[in-house]
Amino acid sequence: MKILVAISNVPDTTTKIQFSDGDTKFNSAGVTYVINPYDEWYALVRALELKEANLAEKVTLIHVGLADSDATIRKGLALGADDAVRIDGEGPDAFFVASQIANHAQAHGYDLILVGKETINYNGSSVGGMIAGLMDLPYVSLATKLELAANKATIEHDIDGGTQIVECELPLVISCAKGMADQRIPNMRGIMAARTKPLSVVSANATDALTGIVAYTLNAGRTTCKMIDENNMDELVNLLHTEAKVI
Questions:
Q1: CB 102 within 8 A of CB 28
Q2: Averaged over 210-215, what is the pLDDT?
Q3: Domains of the chain (ranges, CATH numbers)
Q4: Do 101 and 91 contact (CB within 8 A), yes or no?
Q5: Which is it for the CA torsion 8, 14, 15, 18, positive or negative?
Q6: How many Å apart are CA 118 and CA 36, to the nearest integer?
Q7: Residues 30-64, buried b or exposed e (16+ Cβ, 10 A)?
Q8: What's residue 100's pLDDT?
Q9: Tens digit of pLDDT for each residue in 58-98?
């Protein structure tokens, strides 16, 4: 069995967010990038666990991006992935990224494709479903548990009001959420081995973006808090009607 894990290159969570070019571009100057946590902690680590349990022969990373993301890919290799593929292109939108991954996966016959439930920079939660749609494969989102037996996967995932257990034949695509696996830290042996593991670079296919960014806007952040006396219910009701906002 071959597992493909899609990883994204995202700004570290401590990054100070700034925009440029009239708020139409993210300003990456001085920004430290990391593997998207949902891709790393849940999708990649679960794939490695399946390999360690002799349920998979190979774990391959795939990333759509430019050469400046190679260091991030190497960290995934240091965690234990066998090899990696970087599709050399800067994704203008989620459909472009999903199309590149789907084209590669279709040509190389992976049994299982794992992605994180979303990226922490865009929170779109759409790439996994797009990959499955483009490849005409079953798709399970927000998976919290995954077990394999023969050619069948048993998956738990969150739904409104509870948890659903589903069984699917391979191949399929899964987006992974909290509960799928626990975070790992690369050890020195893994870091040294990652330097020589194969990282193939392939050209991106011509794909038109379906969406575009008009502008970025920072959120307003925290505002002041009004304290209401516990005995002044009339004022509280009035403020809920006149000033409170539903987010």
A1: no
A2: 88
A3: 2-215 (3.40.50.620)
A4: no
A5: positive
A6: 8
A7: eeebbbbbbbbbbbbbbbbbbbeeebbeebbbbbb
A8: 96
A9: 999 999 999 999 999 999 999 999 999 999 998 779 999 99
Residue scoring higher pLDDT (194 or 30): 194
What is the Cβ-side half-sphere exposure of residue 116, based on CA atoms within 13 angstroms?
25
Tokens, residue 241:
């009607």
The pair of three-digit structure tokens given for residue 59, joined into one six-digit string: 């774990």
Nearest to 176 by CA among 126, 101, 112, 117: 117
Q: Which residue bears the tokens 């069984």? A: 167
* The predicted structure's pLDDT at residue 122: 86
Closest CA to 148 of 173, 168, 121: 168
The phi and psi torsions of 112 (rounded to 5 degrees) equal -145, 130
* Segment 47-64, tens digit of pLDDT: 999 999 999 999 999 999
Dihedrals phi, psi of 80, to nearest 5 degrees: 140, -5
Strands 112-116, 83-88: pairing is: unpaired
